[in-house]
Amino acid sequence: MDSAIQQKTSRRVRAIEVTTKILFLVCSLVAALTLLLIIFFIFSNGIPAIMEVGAINFLTGRTWTPTHSTNPQFGMLPMLYATFISTIIAFILGSKIGKWGAIYLMFFCPKKIYRPIKTMVELLGGIPSVLYGFFGVAVILPFIRNNFGGTGNSLLAAIIILTMMILPTIINLGEAAIRAVPNHFYEGALSLGASKTESIFKVVVPAAKGGINGAYILGIGRAVGETMAVIMVAGNVSRMPGTLGDFFQTSTLLAPVRTLTSGIAMEMSYASGLHRDTLFGIGVVLFIIIISLNLTLAILNRNQTNYAKES
Known about the structure:
Number of strands: 2
Mean pLDDT: 86
Order of helices and strands: HHEEHHHHHHHHHHH
Structural class: mainly alpha
Low-confidence stretches: none
Oligomer: single chain
CATH topology of the largest domain: MetI-like fold
CATH architecture of the largest domain: Orthogonal Bundle
Strand content: under 5%
CATH class of the largest domain: Mainly Alpha
Shape: globular
Strand order of the largest sheet: 1-2
Helix content: over 70%
């Protein structure tokens, strides 16, 4: 009797295991198929448009007038420039602040205020982007307009918003990377006579470099892909400095710009024909940028794993 019950139980357990494996397999296949469909859909529409316009003209053209009745032009360089400049400057600011914030939370933050600060950082990461946009419209744009001139809608406003939006990612993942460093790294440095600051910045932080770099990459990805908040504060004008020297002029930071994601979001609702397909072409460029960032993250994570094993 007991043997029959055990066999029945064993068959039931095996059935559950098989069903679970099949379910997981189906979920994995659905995810992979979804990615393949997205890639196929974007590239099948975008690549022919890029070829028709000309890859060089599409990537380096300085004029975007797709709705012009007689001479439509599809140069995405101004949008690529705005995306690149806003992302890089936001990353430079956000990476430093985020890294220092992670180190503070890990080593210097008093226990009484750690949980409130940590909770606020996590909540900051969960705020919808449209609310960041509302904050930009209500606070950042008037500040820029009153203190620096212009309308407020500008590259500078986009940089400030993007810096705020990538901070939670860098702080949370940076702290997690530092926390993952074995404690004996820190204790060993102290036992050898290093100060607390030296132990942190010369031993622990370098050991967590791979994870921190991964946080940087994800932060850049957030900045590159942000749409709604940037639409609300950047001004959405496809414009580019006339000369290299203009990159360093204050007026450039105060001028309205349009990023890649903003261009797609604003024009897709009414675009048709070649115009619509060139927006998919912009999507192809964005997809390649994001994939490159993800590959970089994978390489950094692998290097960090190998470093940890060797240590």
